[in-house]
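Hey, resending since the last one bounced:
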Amino acid sequence: MEKALESTKPPRRVVTVREAAAILQISRATAYQAAKAKEIPTIRIGRRLLVPLAALERLLAGNTAA
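The structure tokens again:
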């Protein structure tokens, strides 16, 4: 039954800074420093700081254009 519910969820479009750090294989502290320096694209919703996956993929591909 749970599997049926999982398939109806929309794909994730954002990750947390901690998850982005894991993807980039850097420390959490380094990821937050990079986000503050605008080296990692982020969006803020309330107190949450999120990283759009599309922007992160462009960053990894070497294309820094928004």
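The chain has a mean pLDDT of 89.

Sorry for the duplicate.
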